[in-house]
Amino acid sequence: MSEKTTFEAIKHRRSVRIYDPEKPIDPAIVAKCLELASLAPSSSNMQLWEFYHITSKDYIHKIAPLCFNQNAAKTAQQLVVFVVRKDLWRKRAKANLDFMDQVFGKNKPKSEWRKREKVARNYYGKIIPFAYFDFLGIFGWLKYLMISITGLFRPMYREVRNSDMRIVAHKTCGLAAQTFMLAMAAEGYDTCPMEGSDTKRVKRLLNLPYKAEINMIVSCGIRKPEGVYGNRFRIPFEEIYKKI
Predict the structure, then answer these.
(1) DSSP 25
(2) Whether the predicted pLDDT of 2 surpasses 80
């Protein structure tokens, strides 16, 4: 099976609801596509995601009812659960700072920091904690009030409340999921993103921590002809394309 070009993969990708049980897919290829997903754009390079690759038929049978027995779940050869880990922001910020040590040198005095290094270290050492830290939502509203006042006089980044940062983390995870689905399409494999699930029960089944959030569950396999429910419909491009 030859790999598809980017254009071919985008055209090939459909939300497939019924997979062929006689055509298994290679877990190693799915894992490779997930590795490509980890290269997706990530806000501030924080990478607040985890990918749970479900190959166990027993787990698939347990998860399918939690996806309300959608055909895409019941007939899936494999599943991938995309999980948002906003609660890991400290760990991810530290990982970026550790990478700075590799790039610029470890334990270098601040007096020797050059402009690029100073900006990068201050970003992950000060700005990221300011953006992500919150306590019962109180600090987030204080940040929002402060920034709203400052924003009267100059452009400001305004999405600083806990709910705002949660949206940022989910958007980033969604980019990873889309990258994964296009990588799968390039391999000739099919997927279906499912938002309809009992996320609380799925979290319990996978033993996810309390603060982890499920972004979406993506089923995987090779389509049966009836697995694509009709022709693709899109709003006319001229209606959504705005050139300024």
Answers:
(1) -
(2) no
